[in-house]
Amino acid sequence: MSKNILIIGFGDIGRRVKSKLDDKYVVYAINRNPKKEDGVKSFYWDWTSGNNFNFKGIMFDSVILIPKPSNMNEDGYRIGFIKALAHINNSLLNVEFHKLIAISSTRVYGSEQHGMLNENIELLPSDFRGSIIKDYEKLLTKTYQKKLIILRFAGLYDETTKTKPFNGLHRKNAAKVINFFVKNENTDIDEHIFNCCEDVVLDDSKKCISNTRIKEAGFLFEI
Questions:
Q1: Is CB count within 10 Å lower at the N or C end of the chain?
Q2: pLDDT means over runs of 10, the chain (223 residues)
Q3: pLDDT at 183
Q4: Which Gene3D superfamilies does UniProt cross-reference here (predicted)?
Q5: Type and span of the H or E element at 153
């Protein structure tokens, strides 16, 4: 039996997710770029416009939300994470789905928070980006509750990156962790927020992102 997946914000990570799914998954891709994507059902939608998308009659197993700021200043972050989420929420009121996998960022931890930081630590963001993303997480949690999985990505990198972030996540692992939760049939997960960061050596003078929870859930990072 086929399973429908909706990816809102289909780009490099979305393509990597699609490439690792077998044929039983039908991927619907929403992007602000009207370009058609191979192997997916592509739809153009500007989620900052105020208009809603409509997938009436389609049951989605997973909705994957990969937000992006409209530009790198404070207004751009508010538009990309808060305003866009309001329009996405309005659209999803008319969409049937089992779970929402929302991408967030470890930027919600502040630069002055040192040592090993897990998901239970108080969030003390040190810039507007982290503060806005923290608000985005709160809105998601309030709206979707048990349907929600939040994945906090550490600094993304790939083979072309000159300097790997101290708290890093290879793009192949970013896609792999999304797929892990897409394929996870356990709807009784106790936790809904997961740090997604490859292993770091504890340094009490630095921000170190713990990956214990995601590993205990059964996820294995590729090296």
A1: N
A2: 94 96 95 84 85 89 96 96 95 94 99 97 98 98 95 98 97 98 78 96 97 96 89
A3: 94
A4: NAD(P)-binding Rossmann-like Domain
A5: strand 148-153
Q: What is the pLDDT of residue 187?
A: 55
- Count other C-beta atoms under 10 Å from residue 110's C-beta: 17
The dihedrals phi and psi of 175, each to the nearest 5 degrees, come to -65, -40
H or E segment to which residue 41 belongs: strand 41-44
DSSP 165-209: -SSEEEHHHHHHHHHHHHH------S--EEEE-------TTSEEE
How far apart CA 59 and CA 36 sit, in angstroms, is 22
pLDDT value, residue 138: 98
Confirm or reject CATH 3.30.70.2750 for domain 3-217, answering yes or no: no
Q: CA angle 159-205-163, nearest 5°?
A: 15
Q: Which residues fall within 8 angstroms of residue 159, CB to CB, at 6 or more apart?
A: none
Give 68's strand partners: none
